[in-house]
Amino acid sequence: MNDEAALPAVEQRPWLVRLRDLVVGPPLPEGLPERVVSIIRREQEKSEILISFAQVCIIAFFFAFYALTPKGFPPDVPFEPIPAALAFYLAFTLLRISLAFRRALTPFVLTLSVIVDIGVLMVTIWSFHLQYQLPPEMYLKAPTLMYVFIMIALRALRFEPGYVVIAGVTAAIGWMVLVAYAMVVGDESMITRSYATYVTSNSVLVGAEVDKIVSILMVSVILALGLSRSRRLLYRAAMDQQAAADLSRFFAPEVAGRIRDHEGDLRPGTAELREASIIFIDMRGFTRTTAGIAPARIMELISDYQALMVGIVHGHRGSVDKYMGDGILVSFGATRPNATHAADALSCIEDILEKGREWTAGRAAAGKPAPEIAASLASGMVMFGTVGSGERLEYTVLGEAVNLAAKLEKHCKVEGVRGIVVRRTFDMAIARGTSTRLAWRQCANATIADVADPVDLALLEEE
After folding, report:
1. Does 226 fall in a domain?
2. pLDDT (0 to 100) of residue 399
3. Span 185-214, mean pLDDT?
């Protein structure tokens, strides 16, 4: 065998691809579903509102801080830049909040917002030498530069690394412009190579300014890389969330929960044995009723019927095991232990028969196909677990109670009734204090609804 072919797939990829995956995370699948993209988009819209409110809080803090702290500049100074800058920034931020609530923040507006955030800060820092009436070199020591990291970090809330990069690059360019202005307009003698002179005067140490620019760019790059990895995880989490929601539509909620929470690989043959009650529901004469009907109308009939039945089943804490054409297999106490499974199932089948009769009458009155609904109920030990192969698994219930419920449902037609319940199940439910609303007639081994002549169903249980 070729040694190269025997290597794992991850080892055969080009090293640049492996390096990219290590740095920014594994690539996302091509053609992400629109519903997943919509989830991310909604989260980003919420993030923009959060960013805007954070900016308002920052502005309020700066206003209060500036108003309460003593001023170190001459009282007759002709221009105070901070109140003007904060007023402009507040107006711009309020406009941004309005656009965020209206979901009107286009990429252009978002980019402009980032540039304005950094630009207002840089212009404010530049104006300090006018306010304090000192050489421009003095503003290079202003601690206000540290706020640029807040502006950059705010962009991380959107989970789009591009805006973090834009903020970092804008800040780096802005600071380079301020440094160049100070060196050109100021006195050349103010440029020094001595760190001691730099920290004890208004001198410019070029290396220190380069350090600031490098720090801004490095923080931006690190944040962008972290966001890129987090963004991929966010997309995968959204895909998993959507898959989990879809899973709950294909399986009973508790079954979907078992699949999501299962530790390790799911394998066929894993089962749990417990006592449960099984209901089998079917539309009587479905084939005859739908003969010659357009497929769309048949699907509408099935959907209407299933929506009614599933709502009833869930209302009584039952689980839909599977759909079999127009048949529905329902379990109580199989997917999770339930001491009242028989009582819940008896109440459920009575609702099925009562509301099923109303459903049939309503469709008939509307001139729509209106088959009758029949159901049967049996209890016993069942196995609940996974069946199938390694490639295709299914959670299901197996056992005599399942087989008996299916046989009894077919026997409804023989007896001319719409529902049959095994006597043992009936007695278990009554012992739990369940009050029955239908007139059930008891036979040898089953309780039959609306039957004139009792029959012996012992053979059905023995088959």
Report:
1. yes
2. 86
3. 83
> What is the structure's pLDDT at 7?
45
Q: What is the DSSP string of 162-183?
A: HHHHHHHHHHHHHHHHHHHHHH
Q: Is 256 within the bounds of a domain?
A: no
183 and 289, same domain (yes or no): no
Tell me which residue has tokens 């903020």. Answer: 167
Task: Please write the tens of the pLDDT for every residue from 370-413.
Answer: 899 999 999 999 887 665 555 555 667 888 899 899 989 888 88
DSSP per residue, 236-254: HHHHHHHHHHHHHHHS-HH
- The answer to whether residue 10 is domain-embedded is no
Among residues 67, 24, 49, which one has the least CA distance to residue 222? 24
CATH no. for residue 296? Answer: 3.30.70.1230
**Percentage above 70 pLDDT, the chain:** 76
CA distance 376 to 187: 98
CB atoms within 10 A of CB 2: 6
Question: Looking at 70-79, 111-120, 200-209, which range is the least confident one?
Answer: 70-79
Mean pLDDT value across the chain: 80
Angle at 131 between CA 115 and CA 139, to 5 degrees: 60
SS3 81: helix
Q: How far apart are CA 180 and CA 174, in angstroms?
A: 10
Rounded Cα distance between 41 and 192, Å, is 50
Tokens 């640049």 label which residue?
16
377 within domain boundaries: yes
The whole-number average pLDDT for the span 264-270 is: 53
Residue 452 has pLDDT above 80, yes or no: no
Specify whether the backbone of 324 is left (phi greater than 0), alpha (psi in -120 to 50) or beta: beta
State whether 322 and 200 are in the same domain.
Answer: no
If we measure between CA atoms, which residue out of 429, 416, 413 comes closest to residue 378? 429
Domain that holds residue 141: 20-247
Radius of gyration of the chain measured on its C-alpha atoms? 36
Name the domain count of the chain.
2
Rounded CA separation 277/347 (Å): 12
- pLDDT of 204 reads 85
Token duo for residue 145: 């530069």
